[in-house]
Design goal:
- By secondary structure, the protein is of the alpha+beta class.
- Strands 10, 13, 14, 15, 18, 19 and 22 form a seven-stranded mixed sheet that branches.
- Strand 7 (about 455-460) and strand 8 form a beta hairpin.
- Helix 5 (about 140-160) runs antiparallel to helix 6.
- It is globular, with a radius of gyration of 29 Å.
- It starts with 15 loop residues before the first helix and ends in a 6-residue tail after the last helix.
């Protein structure tokens, strides 16, 4: 892949060592051996700078070496790498500045009342619910649309702004006026109990515009809690609200708390904090419930509490809150569970909501104070949770998406019931087992289409090729979703992994770590090595984790011996567990880059952290700081009540001993050093990320063999297009090229050993 190189002006940032080598080179022009040593050192130093993401310094270093010296061609190649990265940086900066100016132009048009076009038209959730006589001020749907349009433009401008531009933007009178309108609008929505609108049309935007504003963040979180509470009472085509709460009893939570008291990774559980958050959630529950319109035939079979009952309930909660705050000896596990019992008693004596509702809200709020990964899987959720953890299910074998509000087949999986039945990419599934999909969520659609092996699902499908409606009856089967991908899926369903044949650079993307991932990855590596693999890009972006054993197996392929990861449990959790590498089956030591981002979590952090660890330095990490999960969860089942508990029982420690810090823990301390830090730091903007995702989606689509070759909706992109659309991958390729150059110099030096003194 060749990118047009632009001249990059660099300052005189020559290091002391680099300056000395440059002086030595010029002061001893007749000493070939001395020049060789200098060139060798410069190459080493320049490559080290590249591996740390300092391409500019690498360019300065190599520019000090005369082209005629030994390793001159390698030095020139490194200079080209530095220039190419500089060109990428300039191109991205120009695109950023242009995008910012475009948003500012739109902002000025909005200020003048002129119409504008948005890349993604904003959705207005509340327009259909507007009452012309509503005194709250929500009268004109156009007014709502204009506000959302303004917030959308400000959000984009904020993302594209430099620090100085951001300061100017936030001080802009029209911007300040728009933000205040959003705050006022949220107040109006809350007065009507429209929590979702207050969040999606107001505070979600405000938080995105200024994520460092604590008021925006805190209020957004409270609104989202209300949205979650309200959503639990809504029926869907897949589940009624009554079914959702089935099987939830106090004994489940009692057993969960006692288990955590002994086995949770942190033996100093803050029960006062758990109690405080749980009581606050119970008050929010009441606020949400009092805004609900209760149907006499409501499926949950409860009556709207009176104002007196609500006052009594809130008063009782306030009393419990005072006890928690006033406790001098602290809240123990026993007193916390006693408080939980009191809440259930007060509920019965006052507002009298179904106990399962109060239990679920109290439990979920209290456990959220521990960490985001410790949670109860209630009886109705166990099956879905197991399916998600194993990455296998029984269904028909399609990837679906909501395209223009329609349930659309995005891609097929090879040799699955859907593939054999003739379903194709682009087909719209209008009906599933008699239920229209127009207003059906993706999760609900997945639940309806999947089911026990051997059972049938009836689909009404609008064919993409001719627009005709066709009914299909497909028998479900066991489906295993492949987790190892390449840069382009071919017509036979296989993936291309060699992305730069000239340099022998392969590309492998792992979407999650399942039971099959390690074996599938091994097969790909062996195939690439047969093709002459000389460098590997391992893409773990968006990979939220999976099985620890799978992650360990993959690291073991690249490390000959030594520690891969240590899991350190808390007190009562047992002894530390050490996962070691073995020499057998280790692959050649070719250059390697791992791509990571903020969605790379858990097993992804083990793989990336171990391979980049100072102890091995087997790979260079490119991208963004990882998610910061940094912990091990275990799942225990309560057979009596058919529920499960997933809880954090250990922390990850990398080979050099450092812990992979948890984001939730670090945020509580006001720190940002969570997860695994990349060596070459590159953050993609939203426009860059959108383009990257579109290209990945296009190149992943599998269609029927007889699919129309002229279908413009099915696009495929070349390797050059894939690389140039992805700044992180592009930088990773440059790092591998530098690794290859460094290896060439080392090989030449070894061959000339004895000639240079």
């Amino acid at each position: 892949m060749k990118r047009k190189i632009q001249y990059v002006a660099v300052g005189l940032l020559v290091s002391v060592a680099g300056l000395c080598w440059a002086v030595t080179t010029r002061s001893k022009p007749n000493s070939a051996s001395a020049q060789a040593v200098v060139s060798d050192n410069i190459v080493t130093q320049a490559c080290a700078s590249i591996y740390m993401g300092d391409f500019e310094q690498a360019g300065v270093l190599v520019s000090s070496v005369e082209p005629e010296t030994l390793y001159g061609s390698e030095v020139e190649a490194l200079k080209q790498i530095a220039d190419e990265y500089g060109a990428i940086t300039l191109e991205r900066e120009a695109a950023r500045h242009k995008a910012f100016e475009e948003q500012m132009e739109k902002l000025r048009k909005l200020e003048k009342g002129e119409p504008i076009e948005l890349e993604d038209p904003v959705a207005v959730a509340s327009v259909d619910q507007v009452d012309p006589n509503d005194p709250s001020g929500v009268k004109d749907p156009n007014e709502v649309t204009l506000l959302l349009t303004g917030l959308s433009v400000i959000t984009r401008a904020s993302e594209f702004a430099s620090p100085a531009q951001k300061t100017t933007l936030m001080a802009d009178p029209f911007v300040k006026e728009t933000l205040q309108k959003a705050i006022d609008r949220a107040v109006d929505y809350e007065a009507q109990g429209k929590w979702l609108e207050a969040y999606t049309e107001c505070y979600a935007w405000l938080k995105a515009i200024d994520p460092n504003d604590e008021v925006y963040t805190q209020y957004s979180e409270e609104l989202w809690d209300k949205v979650v509470i309200a959503s639990t009472f809504e029926d869907s085509p897949c589940e009624t609200s009554k079914e959702r709460f089935e099987g939830i009893v106090p004994e489940i939570f009692d057993r969960v708390v006692r288990t955590l008291n002994y086995y949770y990774v942190n033996n100093r559980i803050d029960y006062a904090d758990m109690a405080t958050k749980a009581l606050q959630r119970c008050k929010l529950l009441t606020e949400v419930m009092t805004h609900r319109t209760i149907d006499p035939n409501d499926i949950l079979e409860y009556d709207m509490p009176t104002s007196t009952q609500v006052a009594q309930w809130n008063g009782a909660l306030d009393g419990l809150m005072s006890l928690v705050k006033g406790s001098n000896t602290g809240i123990t596990v026993g007193s916390f569970l006693g408080l939980f019992e009191k809440v259930l008693e007060y509920n019965k004596d006052t507002i009298d909501l179904p106990a399962s509702i109060v239990i679920s809200q109290f439990a979920e709020a209290s456990l959220a104070t521990l960490d985001p990964h410790t949670t109860i899987i209630w009886p109705r959720r166990v099956q879905d949770f197991t399916k998600a953890m194993t990455n296998e299910f029984t269904g028909v074998g399609i990837e679906i998406s909501k395209k223009n509000g329609l349930l659309t087949v995005a891609s097929l999986l090879l040799d699955t019931p859907a593939y054999k039945a003739g379903l194709d990419a682009g087909d719209v599934i209008e009906v599933v087992d008699g239920l229209p999909t127009k207003d059906m969520s993706l999760n609900c659609a997945v639940k309806k289409i999947t089911g026990p092996k051997g059972t049938e699902v009836k689909l009404a499908v609008r064919r993409a090729k001719d627009g005709k409606l066709k009914e299909m009856v497909i028998t479900r089967d066991r489906i295993i979703v492949p987790t190892v991908r390449g840069w382009l899926r071919q017509e036979d369903g296989s993936w291309l992994h060699m992305i730069d044949p000239d340099r022998g650079i392969g590309y492998v993307r792992i979407t999650s770590f399942s039971g099959e991932t390690s074996d599938d990855f091994e097969k790909v590596l062996l195939d690439l090595e047969k093709q002459g693999l000389k460098g590997l890009v391992l893409d773990l972006r968006g990979n939220s984790g999976g099985l620890l054993s799978s992650a360990v197996s993959i690291v073991d392929m690249f490390v000959k011996k030594g520690l891969i990861v240590r899991t350190q449990p808390g007190e009562g959790g047992g002894m530390p567990d050490y996962k070691m590498a073995h020499a057998k089956g280790t692959h050649p030591d070719y250059p390697m880059v791992v791509l990571v981002d903020e969605m790379s979590a858990s097993a992804s952090e083990i793989v990336s952290g171990a391979l980049a660890d100072d102890k091995y330095e087997r790979a260079v990490l490119v991208g963004q700081r990882t998610h910061g999960k940094g912990s091990v969860q275990v799942i225990v089942t309560d057979p009596e009540y058919q529920s499960q508990l997933k809880y954090t029982m250990a922390y990850y420690h990398l080979p050099s001993g450092q812990r992979v810090n948890s984001r939730s823990d670090m945020e509580k301390l006001g720190r940002k050093d969570w997860g695994v830090t990349p060596d070459v730091k590159i953050t993609l903007r939203s426009d860059e990320l959108r383009k990257l995702i579109d290209i990945q989606r296009d190149n992943a689509v599998l269609v029927q063999a007889n699919h129309d070759k002229e279908d413009e909706a099915i696009k495929k992109h070349s390797a050059d297009e894939v690389i140039q659309a992805d700044a992180q991958l592009e930088a990773g390729m440059l790092v591998i090229k530098a690794k290859q150059i460094e290896a060439q110099v080392a090989n030449t030096k070894f061959a000339m050993k004895g000639d240079i003194h």
